[in-house]
Q: What sequence folds into this?
């Protein structure tokens, strides 16, 4: 999973979507070359939608991994694992969730804000730590500061990441593994009237901008 995220450099996030919209996003993401997306489980019907996403992915043989984000409890982590999640992402660091993921060979990305929290997550077995909310705790300058004494930290900032090339470059310049991007990729308005072509174009545009940051 680490290699996929490092190569893709960005983790697209979607939430509160219908099954139809989820299928559109999965197909267009896979067709565009995206290898992993995050479904943030924040709605009452999240489990039902995610189950259908897994079924659609498998039925259509799509080459794409499914991460489930906003996982708050051990029970939810177990449920989404059984439904077919390839990765569990949390806004916080939870020992029970971490233990479960490690014992079941399920990739786990916990969330943290302070340096001590990041190091604690690493000690619990997390390879990549989600830095959240990244823009509110200091942005790229904060990452640069905490990586100075700990250059091997593997971080995924989420929150405040935009589609502007300068914004993305500022994160990659300080050595993050990848970035999480949600509403700046798909706004609520866009999701409400999403079709395949709009979704495919959004993913291709995202890939093109990320590719520019490599130069």
A:
């Amino acid at each position: 999973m680490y290699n996929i995220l490092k190569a893709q450099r960005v983790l697209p996030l979607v939430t509160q979507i219908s099954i139809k919209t989820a299928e559109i996003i999965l197909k267009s993401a896979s067709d565009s070359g995206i290898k992993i997306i995050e479904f943030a489980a924040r709605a009452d019907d999240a489990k039902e939608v995610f189950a259908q996403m897994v079924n659609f992915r498998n039925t259509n043989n799509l080459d794409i991994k499914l991460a489930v984000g906003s996982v708050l409890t051990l029970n939810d982590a177990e449920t989404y694992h059984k439904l077919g999640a390839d990765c569990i992402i949390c806004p916080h660091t939870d020992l029970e969730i971490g233990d479960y993921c490690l014992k079941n060979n399920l990739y786990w990305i916990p969330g943290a804000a302070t340096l001590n929290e990041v190091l604690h997550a690493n000690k619990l077995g997390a390879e990549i730590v989600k830095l959240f909310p990244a823009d509110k705790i200091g942005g790229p300058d904060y990452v640069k500061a905490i990586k100075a004494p700990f250059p091997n930290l593997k971080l995924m900032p989420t929150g405040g990441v935009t589609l502007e090339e300068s914004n993305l470059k500022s994160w990659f310049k300080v050595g993050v593994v990848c970035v999480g991007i949600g509403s700046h990729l798909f706004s609520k308005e866009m999701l409400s009237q999403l079709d395949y072509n709009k979704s495919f174009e959004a993913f291709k545009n995202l890939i093109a901008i990320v590719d520019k940051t490599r130069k």
Notes: DSSP finds ten helices and nine strands in the chain. The first helix runs from residue 2 to 8.
